[in-house]
Amino acid sequence: MASLDSVLSCIDLNLDRSLGRLFDLLRIPSISTDPNYKGECRRAADYLAGDLAAIGFAASVRDTNGHPMVLARHEGPEGAPHVLFYGHYDVQPVDPIELWTSEPFEPVVKEAPDGSKRIVARGAADDKGQLMTFVEACRAFKAETGSLPCGVTILFEGEEESGSPSLLPFLEAHRDELKADAALVCDTNMWDRRTPAISTGLRGLVGEEIVIKAASRDLHSGYYGGAAANPLHILSKIVADLHDETGRVTIPGFYDGVGEVPDAVKAQWDNLGFSEQAFLGEVGLSVPAGEKGRSVLEQTWSRPTAEVNGMIGGYTGAGFKTVIAAEARAKISFRLVFDQDPAAIREAFRAFVTAKLPADCTVEFHAHGGSGAIQLPFDSPWIAAAREALTDEWPNEAAMIGMGGSIPIAGEFKHRLGMETLLVGFGNGDDAIHSPNEKYEMTSFHKGQRSWARILDRLGKGVAV
Amino acid sequence: MASLDSVLSCIDLNLDRSLGRLFDLLRIPSISTDPNYKGECRRAADYLAGDLAAIGFAASVRDTNGHPMVLARHEGPEGAPHVLFYGHYDVQPVDPIELWTSEPFEPVVKEAPDGSKRIVARGAADDKGQLMTFVEACRAFKAETGSLPCGVTILFEGEEESGSPSLLPFLEAHRDELKADAALVCDTNMWDRRTPAISTGLRGLVGEEIVIKAASRDLHSGYYGGAAANPLHILSKIVADLHDETGRVTIPGFYDGVGEVPDAVKAQWDNLGFSEQAFLGEVGLSVPAGEKGRSVLEQTWSRPTAEVNGMIGGYTGAGFKTVIAAEARAKISFRLVFDQDPAAIREAFRAFVTAKLPADCTVEFHAHGGSGAIQLPFDSPWIAAAREALTDEWPNEAAMIGMGGSIPIAGEFKHRLGMETLLVGFGNGDDAIHSPNEKYEMTSFHKGQRSWARILDRLGKGVAV
């Protein structure tokens, strides 16, 4: 315990410096989905590789067909397990920019009404702040002990927010370098501010963009209105038809492979003290809008969804223009659970849309990423070890929870490298990731570093697999 | 006839100069709906007032709460009728700009495959080219005879493309100046390239913009998807529900005041030689998409419509963003016929939308203009006089047709100033008004001037009202 104590103390003493390093990373606008920020993504990768090398990792930036990967390795003591830590340095776009109260890429520490501090910037929580908690834990171990308690490989991706197109080829090509005893991912939330969480389930994701076209050019709605097909009407009908009146998705075969959560697990969820009113109320809602007869935790953790994420067509500027647009577009994503097959869902959706097209209309489909859901065994020894360590750091025992979001890498680690993934994160539900004024609690940043130090220390003592 | 012949000959000899003047006007980007072009709208008004003054009109630019009006007056011979000519100097926005093959505000003359010439620019047909045919006819009369054959008041508006908010107050405030024996409007099409047309019916227009809001901010579709209301789904459902499976509009009371076209008129339309295949085929369509059981001429001339002109929400940039938007917007317009009441339609639509809102959702409505349809008597002596004059100029006799578009001023002239409006225009169906590469046939510009000279000459001889 002596060395762990000194590591924790080193983390406490260096909090300001670790914050400065995080700010340097947050200042890099590494928006992966927008081609204009390609150079910034590489700059973020270079920054991280340099920082890891300074700590003592064998670190390098690896090119892909898209944004580069950062890969770094540090051996552990003989006989200790070796873990793979994954994070992503890319961030979401910042629009609507006018709703930010400070510049998205000029990080600041703000004080909340309760006196707590928070780091505000795009990427503060998702995922730069989170991944740096692990890096800082490693730095403190090296500074205090000259080594790490177990072997660590670090993989930072730059395309997590844009469908991870380069990830699978990279995993396949570097299988030997990446293989470890287990994977660690820090891209998830705490259960609440006093209760850390280990996520045992994650929804998958299929993204599709569709473009409906009718006339060969935009038409005057006076001359043609009433006779010409309107792609916005057709697209709206398709979107409206995606759900029935009970909130279920109507695409044929959509629920193939969707299982039910065992009663024991539902009972554990019921005991978490989750308040639907508070969860919805925080964002101005009061009634669960999804599948009827399901709790909000079921709706977001164990049920699949179809959501329109963006839609555009015709004249959308100031004023009015009486036009019938030649085309209309929508970005639609599906959250998958259990054994739903991403490829089958994509095909079923495309068939669903195509069958609804009236005469003279065409549709283009563009795929934007696809990954299945994952479900970890509740009795994993890795989970047990992490729970011990987390419970030492936080006021409450760590909860085992589900997750509505998608972290495609977890499924790939399982299916391609045969590793379980330990999903431990220090985000909070109000972090506004993907939204204006994204923030990360200073407590998350500080105690997150301490948590990883405890987990690494605990894993270094061995895991009974 | 001697003086008319010399006027026509003056028009022929000065075609190049008249084209130069039109180009000067087309170079002014007077986009009324976009506040960035406010100064350009005034510049267009100043240009026209100056030109009319140079011809000999008492011309001035009159301020309004929006873009200014141009008002000009020239007395005619004792006992001759006095007409009010109306046109609009404002133009539509130019997007999608990337589809233009030349700059929208750098007019050029291009040769069509058949050797005919056309003027290409935003506003070439709608309405700068058309209004200048009348101005040039007046200029030729003044040059050749020193006077005009009848009294002429000219009113040029700068807000026709953005709902004409200042028009009614202006008509009310200047009722005495504007009152005339009849109104002339040049903002419509020929029947075909050899057949001039007089429009006896025009659809009205109601524009509405709606904003559907749910959560207080954009949400991550992983954390909230399945539980949170999605404004794009709600908007799509509203749009999808606007029409039933036969293409009829489902808003309660929408068809109140909609009459049927008399069989005799339908028979005249059937004899026009209109080809639905050609009309739709020209813009890449083949099947009438609107109300079932109606011909395309009925659908566009005598039936009301509900069309979405623009829709936007969520992430619409490059790539993908898994967001549930806080709001979704649509611009929706209604074309009205017969006695449909614009105010009643607006209220019925708003009630229809409000009734469909689920829990936690709100809607904002923004009005964008409203005007009823007009239907001229088929036996008007003004129409008879204009037909005579037009038939002298063109190969075929002038047709009496309906119109799908809306020219709100015609209804206002009738209801507020008690004047009939003669709708004579020289546009063609392929002019691409409101679209990229708008054009106006050189023949329309040239023979349009000659047509107005003949009509003014004919009206100067008296109309038996």
From TrEMBL, chains A, B:
Pfam families: M20_dimer, Peptidase_M20. It comes from the Bacteria. It is an enzyme of class 3 (hydrolase). Its EC number is 3.4.13.-. The keyword Metal-binding applies. The keyword Cell inner membrane does not apply. Keywords: Dipeptidase, Hydrolase, Metal-binding, Protease. GO terms for molecular function: dipeptidase activity. InterPro entries: Cyt/Met_Dipeptidase, Peptidase_M20, Peptidase_M20_dimer. Residues 201-360 form the Peptidase M20 dimerisation domain. NCBIfam families: PRK07907.1, PRK08201.1, PRK09104.1. This is Dipeptidase. It comes from Fulvimarina uroteuthidis.
